[in-house]
Here is the input.
Amino acid sequence: MNNVKEKLVFALDVPDLKSAKALIKELAEYVGVFKVGKELFTAVGPEIFKVIKENNGKIFADLKYHDIPNTVASAARVLVRHGVEIFNVHATGGFEMINMTAKAIKEEAEKLGINRPKLLAVTVLTSLNDEDLKSLKINETTSDYVIDLAKLAKSAGADGVVCSPNEVEQIKKELGKEFITLTPGIRPLWSVKGDQKRVMTPAQAVKNGVDYIVVGRPIRNVENRVEAAKKILKEMSE
Here is the structure.
């Protein structure tokens, strides 16, 4: 992905279709992928996927599936039929859940004669840090736990992981440059950190080898969203 636009994922974290449509039309020229999370998907369902495709956008279904293997694999087959580019599951769902899902999307895509979506595993949410892990009785540092989950995900057939930008360099070193990293927790220098504890600027993230960076509030919550997106693309190119 040499084109920086293809690396930029915009978070459609809005509560209704009207707001989402306006953002998609405004930003389609400057954003490679649109992220559909739980709030928007719960509000409007798969209709949002149609809108994104009508505007020549790519879809990241950020639904973080975590259930028994058969349930997740069945849901993933439906996402293939919707033509999503990327979707995710929780790595803590385990080897069998990830592996069955990887096989299911390959089979479904072959049946339909289309490219399969990229399957990413969520490692540790960027809102968590070492102290949070301790409270969950996980006696590892955040970075070590992320690496362990990434190794599990790769062995099960995932294409990559969702992680903080701080872990990308080590993941690429241990699991290879082709193993995809998608990172939230990206904040330009001119933006506030928000509720995410492990953050990085777009320029730093790209330098570390990140494949996709997710940006929401720094674009969405400003007066001139197009200008904000352009500024981020410029930062990513530096």
Summary: Strands lie at 8-11, 33-36, 58-65, 86-90, 118-122, 160-162, 180-183, 212-215.
